[in-house]
Amino acid sequence: MQTQEDQVRVGIIGCGGRAGEHMRALSTNPGARIVGVADVVEAAAQRAGERLGVPWYRDHRLLLERDDVDALWISVPVFAHGGIELDTIARGLPFFVEKPVARELDTAREIARALDRAGLWASVGYQLRYLPWIRGVRDVVASSTLAIAEGHYWCGTGRQDHWVADWERSGGQLVEQATHTIDLLRFFGGDVDEVWAVHAHRVLHNISSPDAHAVAMRLRSGAPATLSASWAHDPGEWKETNVLHLVLDGMLVRVDAAGAAVTPADRAQVPEVHGPDIYDAFLAAVRSKDPAAAGVLSPYRDAAATLAVSLAANTSGETGQPVRVPQI
Ligand SMILES: NC(=O)c1ccc[n+]([C@@H]2O[C@H](COP(=O)([O-])OP(=O)(O)OC[C@H]3O[C@@H](n4cnc5c(N)ncnc54)[C@H](O)[C@@H]3O)[C@@H](O)[C@H]2O)c1
What we know:
By secondary structure, the protein is α/β, with parallel strands linked by helices. It has helices at residues 17-27, 42-52, 60-65, 83-90, 105-118, 132-142, 167-170, 172-176, 179-189, 278-288, 291-294, 300-319; strands at 8-13, 32-38, 56-57, 71-74, 95-97, 122-124, 148-154, 192-200, 212-219, 224-230, 243-248, 251-256, 259-263, 323-324. The chain has two domains: 4-127, Rossmann fold, CATH 3.40.50.720; 128-276 and 308-324, 2-Layer Sandwich (Dihydrodipicolinate Reductase, domain 2).
């Protein structure tokens, strides 16, 4: 049983759609207490602050000035990263930040270096890594040889009039959404060394981002992988997002956000490997100052390596050339 003294006091920066889910989870987690919120849109900050019964601010620096904050929860759009994280690090606080970690790799590198210099850490919102069967698939892959991987992320989100569909602000679907699929591929199969992508505008001509992507990848292990992403498919649900097929030695694993299955079924079982969820791991890490031991599965630098793959694929799609994935 947590006492009020044990509770991690969390400030939330960004009060949009995704933050609403984080606010619900944190306000029902006995290990956390939300102490304030901030959003550049005053009405969004006010709405969230009044709903939670906490002070609200238009400027995240006012939230950071408070002396009763142990950690920050950052849930802002892709283009808004940089200053918020650097201010949080300058204040000496660890943070959770939503994926993808930035729009540009240099921003992510600067934040990663600042974290190292300050002896701080951050946890990134790749929540799929925490699912029991995702951890289990990782064990199955480790016990075999990955021959080839194939993934897809198909949905209709690009149809919205929203920053997500805007190339300059979001980096398009490979940066903003299929980052989850790329991240899972890296979680299972290790680093990606080289990418070659084809982008197309096929259906959604009113948005600045392409609506179809085919990406070929070479993993450091030597295994090839492919990724298909499109906003043209509009089923109103998420069944065809983050689907991965992993061809191993003598078996096929199909995995997505709902479960995993091996074919042939008698070849292996995907174990359910349980551990703390993304919230409990973060809160435990704030208390212990040891994110790895607390069960944080997506540290900042690793998430920046996932961003590097998306951005390399974007460069390849624009230039028509294969691109080596840069180091962080
Ligand atoms: N992990 C997941 O599955 C998942 C799901 C949805 C969204 N996300 C991510 O969460 C992030 C936020 O997405 P969203 O859907 O909530 O977007 P949103 O547009 O609904 O909300 C973003 C909020 O951030 C605010 N904001 C912008 N700049 C800010 C700044 N400098 N300081 C404070 N607030 C600022 C905006 O005013 C807005 O209220 C994105 O990176 C997105 O990719 C992750």
